Amino acid sequence: MTQAANQQDLLPAEVVETRANPSHTVIWMHGLGADGHDFVPVVRQLALPPLGIRFLFPHAPMMPVTINGGFVMRAWYDIASDNLARKEDEHGLRASQAAIEALIRREVERGIPPSRIVLAGFSQGGALALQVGLRHARKLGGLLVLSAYLPLIALIDRERNAANGLTEIFMGHGTLDPVVPMALAVASRAKLTHLGYPIEWHEYPMMHGVCEEELADVGNWLHNVLL
Predict the structure, then answer these.
(1) CB 3.0-4.6 Å disulfide test: which of 24, 60, 115, 128 passes with 74?
(2) Is position 177 annotated as part of the catalytic site?
(3) Per the residue annotation, which of 35, 38, 78, 177 is the catalytic one?
(4) Nearest-CA neighbor of 206 among 226, 169, 224, 180?
(5) Residue 169 forms beta bridges with which residues?
(6) Cα-based distances in Å from 63 to 12, 76, 82, 111, 167
(7) Average pLDDT over residues 6-20
(8) Catalytic residue among 123, 147, 173, 188
(9) Are 147 and 172 within 8 A, CB to CB?
(10) What is the pTM of this model?
């Protein structure tokens, strides 16, 4: 069942429910310049556990993006240059963090405990999943990070919340990725591993995208963290 969700004061989102009265939620954030429709077809491609799962695919706000000449597009935060870790848009990251936190609160109000909520994202959306998930005050079900990196890495030591210190994290990345360099993803994994987070790491011979092998691994991982 697919529908559009436009709750007042919440990000608009596409919604897919695998069964009526879902018991689990996956909040999946898209990449720069895309929108919430981008990953909706993925639900049908995943071998999901036999559960009622609500997938929320929120639409990022429209904003000018510096690296794209100030062109206005959907983005979770601004990007100044190809060096993603330089001149990070802390204000934009924190604003989007607050917006995703609001979606989490809405799911809790609907009766979904945080431990049954997974944050997922691709590229910018994956970075936002880490930005939110590592700081969230209650234990989440897992963090799914595709072709992304750890933003504001210098701040994570003091800002991370112990509630998610052992939350399972899936990180998948293309070895040929020209957008989010492999080295940046590896450095992010190293930092998270150093801090004690359990990382399931996967590499794929692809560029900046997803592939069938990765989706199979994502389905297996979701089985483990949702059941």
Answers:
(1) 60
(2) yes
(3) 177
(4) 180
(5) 143, 199
(6) 15, 9, 18, 33, 32
(7) 86
(8) 123
(9) yes
(10) 0.95
The conformation of residue 67, written as its DSSP 8-state character, comes to G
- Rounded CA gap, 181 and 97, in Å? 23
pLDDT in tens, 79-129: 998 888 888 999 999 999 999 999 999 999 999 999 999 999 999 999 999
The one catalytic residue among 23, 202, 208, 217 = 208
Structure tokens at 13: 């989102």
Q: What is the CATH number of domain 2-226?
A: 3.40.50.1820
96: which 2 tokens?
């989007």
Closest CA to 118 of 44, 227, 207: 227
Lookup result for tokens 């994956």: 126
Q: Evaluate whether 221 touches 199 at the Cβ level (below 8 Å).
A: no
- Collapsing DSSP to helix, strand or coil, 139 comes out as coil
Give residue 136's pLDDT: 98
Angle at 101 between CA 165 and CA 215, to 5 degrees: 70
- Which own/partner pairs from 96-101 qualify as long-range (CB within 8 Å, at least 24 positions apart)? 96/60, 96/61, 96/128, 96/131, 97/128, 97/131, 97/132, 97/135, 99/10, 99/11, 99/58, 99/61, 100/11, 100/27, 100/29, 100/58, 100/128, 100/132, 101/132, 101/136
